[in-house]
Design a protein that fits this description.
19 helices, mainly alpha, 426 residues, transmembrane transporter activity
Length: 426
């Protein structure tokens, strides 16, 4: 569901920690090597907790609408506030991770997020619920960029795409399990108990994460000087390739956020009229995302980065169009394709950010995460608004436009790469 993806420091010391020198590279973790399994499991669980908390209300929006007497658009703010909070705070949190360490920031972020998660069930009104969700999203901002920065510093470059794919796979498992659990629990005991259960699950994940994650070996504390941060951000935003990757992440997430915010309303209404528990189980489709994200490295190896993005965009578009059918099996197949395309595209784009940035990788990753979750917030609100105005075809229309944006940007990248190769060849 990142989401983003690598990181190092804006300072000379932190940049050196992710340099390509042989001694540092040789001491990093590799698949099958010491600490790699513990690290992979720890970050997988962090991904589970992040997405389970971040989207804990998404499958419950029809129940929240009914309980609080609000529209789909109003209820969607419980999702948009969380992703928006993350988008706003991911860059400042990445700067804190440069100074205080990746593991420290991730631990603190999870601690605050799970604490708020235990308070969410007691929100007395929609504004209070939205406010708590915004705080929760802001706290979770410490996870994505810090996790990928940790991986960039502690894992060998050849294993980086695979390691990030596993973290993204944890996102998909968290998104899936959170929605499935909340669906069935809410059907019996209401949405408040459902989000409370997710809070307890996230506590367990947070504790296991802290116990399992190996201490960093290549982190060098950086500076918190605002001038350095601003200069690094300006450098990243001036890079055409990074700008394209940020836009691609935002557009992919616009599709995903819109589809999964609205799908509950569509499936609980005629002609499907499914019960809440069954609607929650629909999110088992996320398992497809787990597979597609974890195999993104092999996909890039066969097709190249741009080829993988074309395939991911085409798969997502095919799923959107298929979901228009008035047949439940075809709608489910459409969701499978949307999910597979989204997670593959996200893993490819996010890992490319880490490889492209030559310095300040934590900030480069944070900017990707910010764009990614802005896309999620936009998709949630615009998708819900389109559904209210034109039904499911309206939401699909928003998604198709976003996919066309991904394809257009990728084509622009292909043309730019060809133009750069011509002088070199000459």
């Amino acid at each position: 569901m990142t989401p983003a993806d690598t990181g190092a420091s804006t300072t000379v010391g932190a940049a050196a920690s992710v340099s390509a020198s042989a001694p540092v590279s040789d001491s990093r973790m590799t698949p099958g090597g010491p600490g790699y399994r513990r690290m992979s499991l720890a970050l997988f669980l962090a991904g589970v907790a992040t997405f389970a908390l971040l989207y804990s209300t998404q499958a419950l929006l029809p129940l929240i609408s009914g309980d609080m007497g609000v529209t789909a658009g109003d209820a969607s703010w419980t999702v948009a506030a969380a992703t928006g909070g993350l988008a706003v705070f991911v860059l400042p949190m990445s700067a804190l991770s440069e100074r205080f360490g990746r593991r420290t920031v991730m631990t603190a972020s999870l601690a605050v997020a799970v604490t708020v998660g235990l308070l969410v069930p007691f929100a007395p009104s929609l504004p209070a619920l939205v406010a708590l969700r915004a705080v929760q999203g802001a706290a979770l901002a410490g996870l994505p960029a810090s996790a990928t920065a940790y991986l960039a510093e502690e894992v060998t470059p050849k294993a980086l795409v695979t390691a990030i794919g596993l973290f993204v796979a944890g996102n998909s498992v968290g998104g899936m399990s959170g929605r499935v659990i909340t669906g069935w629990v809410a059907q019996e005991w209401g949405w408040r108990v459902a989000v409370g259960v997710i809070g307890v699950v996230a506590v367990a994940c947070a504790v296991a994460f802290r116990l399992l994650l190996p201490a960093p070996r290549h982190f060098t504390p950086g500076s918190l000087r605002p001038r350095v941060l601003v200069r690094t951000v300006r450098d990243h935003l001036a890079d055409p390739l990074l700008r394209r990757l940020y836009a691609i992440g935002a557009l992919f997430m616009t599709v995903f956020g819109g589809v999964y915010t609205v799908i509950g309303y569509r499936l609980t209404e005629a002609p499907f009229s499914l019960p809440q528990g069954v609607v929650g189980s629909i999110f088992l489709v996320y398992l497809v995302g787990t597979v597609s994200a974890s195999t993104a490295g092999r996909l890039v190896g066969r097709l190249g980065r741009r080829g993988a993005l074309y395939l991911a965009g085409g798969t997502t578009a095919a799923g959107l169009l298929l979901s228009l059918a008035p047949s439940l099996p075809l709608v489910l197949l459409g969701l499978v394709l949307i999910t597979a395309g989204f997670f593959a595209g996200h893993a490819v784009a996010s890992s490319a950010v880490g490889k492209t940035a030559t310095h300040g990788r934590a900030q480069a990753s944070a900017l990707y995460q910010s764009a990614y979750y802005i896309g999620s917030s936009a998709g949630s609100t615009v998708g819900a608004t389109a559904f209210h105005a034109a039904g499911w075809p309206g939401t699909v229309g928003v998604g198709v436009l976003a996919v066309l944006g991904v394809v257009t940007i990728t084509i622009a990248g292909t043309l730019a790469a060809r133009t750069q190769r011509r002088p070199a060849t000459a």
